[in-house]
Amino acid sequence: MSLLDKVPGDLKLYIGGLFTLRRKDQLAEAGITHVLSVLRLPLEEKLFEGYKHMVVEVDDVEDENLLEHFPAATRFIDEGLASGGAVLVHCAMGKSRSATCVIAYLMQKYNISPSEALEQIRQSRPLCEPNEGFMKQLELYHEMQTPENVEDTPAYQRWVYQREVEMSRACGQAPEAEKIRFEDEHVTAKDDSGFDMRCRKCRRTLATSQFLIPHQAQRGPADSCTHYFLDPLSWMRPELEKGEVEGRLECPNLKCKANVGKYAWQGMRCNCGEWIVPAISLSKGRIDEAKKRAADPSAMGIRMPATAGPRGPGQNNL
């Protein structure tokens, strides 16, 4: 196994480990002009003399956020190749972090999946194997269609929120108030399908079915569940931002204040057997479903009777 391996294809793109940087003869032979370092170890500056250099400071652990660095890393690689140079991407072993960044670049350039990009790299460097967390981030990057700015993408924002919930859960705490993502504040288009969930006491709409968290019933039919599990919604803000690990949810109608559900950041087991994390729920016994209706019946392909609308010329309007 060479310390410096070229990614198969026409690109002057190479991948290697930390010791690759000491093989100046190999670097010169490959025409390396740009070096992308993907690691947090202190680096000797003299190793990078004569190269355009970029550092992505991350550890090779599954909960590390490498996804946020994909756009900058891929731009650096692209600029190096576009200038007519050759690019080396390295980490400590040339196995996980460096492979992840090269995969992200190949995905963006060729519109291929993470597994296809990894297979291509392994043709020259079989040991490449991003850790499980990085592979999941690559899958998300693929689902997001490799955007130039991941931080403005709703899917990324939701992923960051879920990570925050998991870290808080591990510490036995509620997530920080500013980290909670209230999903209805990020919806750009209203979903007119499905149904509303209304307070049974005052009839106020509390949620729509687009904010339901689906889960697999572990025992019995799915409709036997006694709770609706939801994304955090803005009317829940006063309660969810208290910093409590668990609590109850009251109808936001000040004249009602009925107890409509509960939440548990550490998770809650549904009566069907599935464990939901985080668990933000409305009790079906305190909620009514209201099917949505289309405002314009003709939009649903329904033919209206002749007497339903204004009469034409020569006709009497009764």
Give a summary of the structure in a few sentences.
Its EC number is 3.1.3.48. The protein is of the alpha+beta class.
Total count of strands: 14
Q: What is the CATH architecture descriptor of the largest domain?
A: Alpha-Beta Complex
Query: For the record, what is the CATH homologous superfamily label of the largest domain?
Result: Protein tyrosine phosphatase superfamily
Annotated CATH topology of the largest domain: Protein-Tyrosine Phosphatase, Chain A
CATH class of the largest domain: Alpha Beta
Tally of DSSP helical segments: 7
- The parts where pLDDT drops under 50 for at least 5 residues are 295-318
Helix content: 10-25%
Q: N- to C-terminal separation?
A: 90 Å
Strand order of the largest sheet: 1-2-5-3-4
Largest β-sheet summary: 5 strands, mixed
Mean pLDDT across the residues is 88
- Beta-strand content: 15-25%
- The outline comes out as elongated
- What is the N-to-C succession of helices and strands? EEHEEHEHHHHEEEHEEEEEE
Structural class designation: alpha+beta
Provide the gyration radius in Å.
27 Å
Taken together, the total number of domains comes to 2
EC number: 3.1.3.48
Protein name: protein-tyrosine-phosphatase
Family: Belongs to the protein-tyrosine phosphatase family. Non-receptor class dual specificity subfamily.
Keywords: Hydrolase, Protein phosphatase
